[in-house]
Automatic annotation (TrEMBL):
Protein transport recorded as keyword: no
Organism of this sequence: Rhizobium calliandrae
Protein name: ABC transporter substrate-binding protein
CDD domains in UniProt: PBP2_polyamine_1
Keyword Ribonucleoprotein: no
Keywords of the record: Periplasm, Signal, Transport
Length: 357
């Protein structure tokens, strides 16, 4: 999912002056209390995603980035305490089970009703009494991005990432909700609830792929560079990589596999011990404005969670990005990444397989 899966490419985080440095330069008392801390996917820190927040609170946010939301979960569980974090839907129940979250009051979310119902009504985000555990913000797809000049007329299937003739020229995503999910689909197993025997089948499928893969990574910048140079001919990526390479004129196609692309949704969660809840609501509201969602769609080719963001993007541009204006249409032909009951077992098994086990 990213995400990514961003759901999912590594870009340097913006290096704004810290509150302390700024206050010292102005001779003001340093205070971190009036600064929002936000923990997000790398690539999601762009200022154009929260312009009105910055206008109201110049230098009002301190952003830390992660490459994968499993890593984010581990860091938060270990004691890192941002006010807001940006995991994906399939992980929300896990964060909640650990007691890391506080409910978000939808009455304080100005554009709550502009969020597509399919995301607003996700079961694991419901906290009762008009409250939610996550405010959906972005959604997108995970699929195979391949060089059309180097891979001639491939079958539209995830099996391309298991094709021996491209050994050493394939990369895949180093995240439990991506590569193992696809291995499960190809093994004929439900990725979201499996028996120990089915888990074994998924492990076998991953072992079959391992010698063919040049990298397991969430660093989409390096994947894009390797696809552009021809070092890689195919990789599992998110929409943003297809958008970036097409802009550079690289002959690539983002596949629609017969088994289904993966579709993921991510959003904002408020940590239980968040110190700046008012700023957090301001930030979420800023991110849910039509202009913010439009910037997300146009920069990365990801879907925004709001109908107003889609209405702000020309129809031709949406067609060019292969984004239907209604995500429900996309979800009818894709596999939605929901909670995985065996997430921890799957994660351990994936680590073992990657290490040669």
């Amino acid at each position: 999912m990213k995400h990514d899966h961003q759901r999912r490419f590594v870009r340097p985080a913006s290096r704004a002056l810290t509150a302390v440095a700024l206050s010292l330069s102005l001779g003001l008392p340093a205070s971190a209390a009036d600064k929002l801390t936000y923990f997000t996917w790398s690539g999601y820190e762009l200022p154009e995603f929260h312009k009105t927040f910055t206008a109201a609170h110049p230098d009002g946010v301190d952003i830390s980035v992660f490459g994968d939301d499993d890593d984010a979960f581990t860091k938060v569980k270990a004691g890192f305490h941002p006010d807001l974090a940006h995991p994906c839907y399939d992980k929300v129940a896990r964060w909640n089970k650990e007691g890391l979250l506080q409910p978000i009051d939808t009455a304080k979310i100005k554009n709550w009703d502009k969020i597509f119902p399919v995301f607003r009504n996700l079961p694991d985000i419901q906290a009762g009494d008009r409250k939610v555990w996550m405010v959906p913000w972005d959604w997108g797809n995970t699929s195979v991005l391949y060089r059309t000049d180097l891979v001639k007329s491939p079958k539209q299937s995830w099996n391309l990432l298991w094709d021996k003739q491209y050994a050493g020229r394939i990369a895949t995503i180093d995240a439990v909700h991506d590569t193992p999910v696809v291995a499960a689909l190809l093994a004929g197993v439900s990725p979201f609830d499996m028996t120990p025997e089915q888990l074994g089948k998924v492990a076998d499928k991953l072992r079959e792929q391992r010698p063919l893969v040049s990298a397991y990574t969430t660093d989409m910048t390096s994947v894009e560079q390797s696809l552009a140079s021809g070092q890689l001919v195919a990789a599992m990526t998110w929409n943003a990589s297809a958008v970036a390479l097409k802009k550079q004129g690289v002959p690539v196609e983002f596949m629609k596999p017969k088994e289904g692309m993966l579709t993921w949704a991510c959003g904002f969660v408020m940590l239980k011990d968040a110190k700046n809840t008012d700023l957090a609501y301001d930030f979420i509201n800023s991110r849910l404005e039509a202009e913010s969602g439009k910037a997300l769609i146009e920069n990365y080719g990801y879907g925004a969670s709001t109908t107003s963001a889609f209405a702000a993007v020309p129809k031709e541009e949406l067609e060019n990005l292969q984004l239907p204006p209604d995500p429900e249409a996309m979800l009818k032909s894709t596999v939605f990444t929901g909670p995985m009951k065996q997430n921890d077992d799957l994660a351990k098994m994936f680590e073992k397989v990657k290490a040669g086990g």
